Amino acid sequence: MFTKNMSSKIFRAVILGPPAAGKGTISRRILKKFNCDHVAPGDILRLHIEKNTRLGQQAKRYLQEGKLVPDDLVIKLVSSSINEIGNRSWLLDGFPRTEQQARILQHSDPVEFVINLKVSTQLIIDRAKNRWVHLPSGRAYNIGFNEPKIPFKDDLTGEDLIQREDDKPEVLEKRLDIYWKTMQPVLDFYKNLDIVYDFSGKSTDEIYPKIEKFLTERTICCSKAALNKG
Ligand code: ADP
């Protein structure tokens, strides 16, 4: 809670986490609570493709093939987004994905800390196995908790629920494997700088409050002038 004696400090952070670890939900909660900008190259690239810009034309085939966009393209994109933000906090999501990206960013716009979501592979696989979605609306249900009223049917429309292809254990295991192969060097790079903060837990509801506390401590500073007056 902010009081009149407190002012807010900006932060420059990266959020990292394996697929299906809840990174999207946690990022949304951070943005809602803290006055910060979200820089997600995947979203920006999709927008460029939709608008058919030059960048969009260059990036399109990589996204279609599920390959990483070349470093120089994506670095340019992120730098210009960060420049536009100016003197406000930012949270990078989906960048860096290579050590080279991390190095270049650290040189131009140093990251102050990395929020590293630590969720065990087994937990991710179990959670995804029990997740059923209503595709048209995106409503998701979980077997064991938050179950639909009628098994495998959407509560509102009564339509069938399905399992997303990328939630299936064999597909997810492959994605997790790729994640660790590509992201370990990035994590090691930040660990060497001693700026990685791990947050673990069994659910987003357990992890998020720890992140909120951490960010609150980082962003609230008591201004001396305000204290003297107060
Ligand atoms: P996903 O988590 O499914 O990869 P994203 O929205 O983060 O979703 O990324 C979508 C696509 O955008 C990636 O498959 C890749 O082609 C491209 N992309 C996103 N971030 C980067 C990055 N940091 N470096 C290179 N390519 C990226």
Q: Which word captures the global form?
A: globular
The overall strand count is 9
Distance between the termini: 17 Å
Q: In which order are the strands of the major sheet placed?
A: 3-4-2-5-8
Largest sheet composition: 5 strands, parallel
Mean pLDDT: 89
CATH C-level class of the domain at 6-36 and 88-120 and 178-224: Alpha Beta
CATH homologous superfamily designation of the domain at 6-36 and 88-120 and 178-224: P-loop containing nucleotide triphosphate hydrolases
Number of helices: 9
Ligands (ions, cofactors included): adenosine-5'-diphosphate
Q: Give the fraction of residues assigned to helices.
A: 40-55%
Instruction: Please state the CA-atom Rg, rounded to the nearest Å.
Output: 20 Å
What is the string of helix and strand elements? EEHEHHHEHEHEEHEHEH
List keywords for this structure.
binds adenosine-5'-diphosphate, alpha/beta, 5-stranded parallel beta sheet, two-stranded antiparallel ribbon, 9 strands, Rossmann fold, 230 residues
Characterise the protein shown here.
The chain has a domain at 6-36 and 88-120 and 178-224: P-loop containing nucleotide triphosphate hydrolases (Rossmann fold, 3-Layer(aba) Sandwich), CATH 3.40.50.300. The protein has helices at residues 23-33, 41-51, 54-64, 71-85, 99-108, 121-129, 169-193, 204-219, 224-229, and strands at residues 6-8, 12-16, 36-39, 89-93, 113-118, 131-134, 139-142, 196-200, 220-222. With 230 residues, the protein is of the alpha/beta class. It contains nine helices and nine strands. The strands form three sheets. Strands 3-4-2-5-8 form a five-stranded parallel beta sheet, with helices on both faces. The structure holds adenosine-5'-diphosphate. Adenosine-5'-diphosphate is lined by residues 41-42, 45, 62-63, 66-69, 74, 94-97, 101.
